[in-house]
Design a protein that fits this description.
Elements lengths: L1 H19 L1 H6 L4 H19 L7 H25 L1
Amino acid sequence: MLNTRRNRYALAFLSAMLLMGCSSVTTAEYQPAMEKALEALLVAERALENASRDKGGHRAEALRHVRAAIRETRKGIRYDNRH
C-alpha cells in the first residue's frame, strides 16, 4: 500500500508540474511546504471525486473548495518562482 501511495503522490506531483509548464519545472525554486500542500490537495480531490454522492451537496461543495485551493496553491508557487 505504501508503494501505491508513493506512486500516487509522485504522479500527482508530476502532473502538477506538467500543468504549470515545463519551463517552470527547470527553473522552479524548491518549495517543499507548498508542494506538499498541493500533493495533499490533489489526493483530497481524488478522494472526494470517488466518494458517494449522497451527501446533501456537501461533497460537491467540498470538492469546489478543494479545487479552488489547488488553483490558489499553484498560483502561489508560480508567483514565488517569478519573484
